[in-house]
Every structure is written in structure tokens, then in C-alpha cells.
Amino acid sequence: MAGRSAAWAEDGGRPFLAYLTSWTEVRTDSPTATRLARLPGYITHVALGFARPDMTYAGNLDLAGTGLQFPFSGQVLKAAIAELRRHQPSVRVLVSVGGWGHFGWDARNFDALARLVKDLGADGVDLDYETADSGCVRTPEARIACADDARSIAVLEDLRRALPRPFVLTVAGWSVGAYGEGRFAASEPRYGPYVGMMLALLRSPAAAGIDLVSVMAYDAGPKFSPGEAFHAYRNYWRGPLALGIQVLPPQSGGPRDTVERTARMLSEVLRDPKGGAMLYGIGLKPPGATGPDNPDDVTLALTICVALGLEGCVAPVP
């Protein structure tokens, strides 16, 4: 049944949200052969990336105008979701809207998105609100104000209105999105148009519509601390919170998310009873020979499972 409530958050379970990159899926006409249908049960949420906020959707599971790049039809995708649920009934399948380059927020069409979610039999949406420049600055009162504040809140409100509970709504937060004020005013990197971009949204009444926040804790430069970012988000968000791990090497000069680094970062997350992890993303492969210092999606998923103390870690992602 689509739109089931997130019972995993109520029983003390730790979230593990994994993005599945649509353009890397298996080219097949068989739903059972897809990566999606064969995901292991320790993944609590799978986010299908990425749909356009200004999508067109004609119905009948036609994915052509949605932004999703699966190499198979919408009918196969719907059947793959059903097959995944047959083996892993507790997983939450989300359509992720936004992502880098999908900046059509002013022309957002969440009625179309809601119809797509319902037609697929998915459980909700993941909001990956990104813009070319959020325009964040520090005010003389030592607060962060962003040109995008009003729009980001309106996007969240419109999305929750289009898909009310029990549909699940998760939010991906920019690495430095909770920096800039209070004890996180000096957190590095201190400057840039994205520092504090999530503060207005997380402080708004609209945040009550969020079920889970994940932190894109990567590609923020050599001075960035994922643990510091996790604590900054926790300062404003009291619900389930997932620390993001990246398969691809960073392009910003920061450290690689190796097996050892991932396990070390998540050991800190374990101190938080609602802490978990996010993986970006299933289907992505790093360049070069893989190993503990250059892990692929399979290795990082297993590392996260073990580090969080989840069950069934012997089952790899396909």
C-alpha cells in the first residue's frame, strides 16, 4: 500500500537512506532483474533520483518528461517497486525531486509529481532542494538571511500539501546548510552562498511536515567536518537525521569517504538515538581499482550496515 507511515522512526530504528541513480540502472524488461527489486532489507529508504520539480507527466507511467532516466519503462519501474516490497515490505520507496541542475522550482508542478508517486505505488518524496546560488549572507544581527528562504519554505509547504501524510517526505540538506549562527557561526567553511541555506526552512512551521533529514556531508572542501555538520543540523532538527556518505571521490579537495573514515564517522552518529546514514548512491562506481581506500557502492553500503548495527549485512546491494 502506498503512503504507509514511517513506523521505522517510531520504534527506535536507525534510518539508512540510499539514493538509486536512475541512469545507472540495469537495462532490462524484467522487473526482477532491476537493482531496485533486489535491494537488501537493511536499507530503510530508497530515493529514486532525480525528478524535475518542473516535470511534465502525462500519466500512464510515461516517464519521458519527469527527469527520471531509468533505461526501462514506467511499467517496469512500478513492477520493480512491487517486487522489492514483496521481499522487503518495510522499505520506503521515494521519488527524489531536485538535485544539482534541476533548478525549476518557480515552475514546480507538484500535482504532476504526486500523480507519478501514486501511479508508481511509491511511499513519498525526497526533497533535494538545490539552486545555483542561494544568496546567503550574514546580517548585522549575526543571523543568516538567504535570497531563497521564502521560496524554499514555499516549496516544502507545496510538496507536503500535494502529498499529505501518511506519504513520507524526506529532505536532503546542503553540507553547510545549518552553519552560520550561534556556536556554528565559525564552523568551516565559514563563507559562501550556501552557508546557512537550510536554517529558515528548518525553523519554519513547515518543517513539521518533514519525516527525515539527511546531510549531504561531502564535497565541501578540506576544512569541512561531517561530524560538525551533523551536530549543526541536530541543533535545529530533532527528528531522524542521516549523515551522508559519498561513493564518488570528492571534487572539492576534501578527504575520500574510505571504509575506515566511514566507520569512524558513523561511530559518532551512534551516540545519537535517531542518527543514521545516507548513501549517494547505488549504481555509482569510483574510477580506478576499488578497495578499502577507494570503496564502491557495494562496499560502502555494507560498511554502513555494520557500523549502524543493522541486521542482514551479509546481503550486498546488487
CATH class, named Alpha Beta
Please write the string of helix (H) and strand (E) elements: HEEHEHEEEHEHEHEHEH
Task: Characterize the biggest β-sheet.
Answer: 8 strands, parallel, barrel
Give the total of beta strands: 10
Domain count, please report it. 1
Estimate percent helicity. Answer: 25-40%
Described by its quaternary structure, the protein is single chain
**Helix-and-strand structural type:** alpha/beta
Report the CATH architecture. Alpha-Beta Barrel
How much of the sequence lies in strands comes to 15-25%
Task: Name the CATH superfamily assignment.
Answer: Glycosidases
Strand order of the largest sheet: 1-2-3-4-7-8-9-10
Mean pLDDT: 95
Poorly predicted sequence stretches spanning 5 or more consecutive residues: 1-10
Distance between the termini: 25 Å
Rg from Cα: 18 Å
- Shape call: globular
Provide an overview of this structure.
The longest helix is centred in the first third of the chain and has 14 residues, at 74-87. The protein contains 8 helices and 10 strands. The strands form 2 sheets. The chain has an 8-stranded parallel barrel with strand order 1-2-3-4-7-8-9-10, surrounded by 5 helices. The chain has a two-stranded antiparallel sheet with strand order 5-6. The protein has one domain: Alpha-Beta Barrel (TIM Barrel). Helices cover 25% and strands 17% of the residues.
In short:
Strand 5 and strand 6 form a beta hairpin. The chain has one domain: Alpha-Beta Barrel (TIM Barrel).
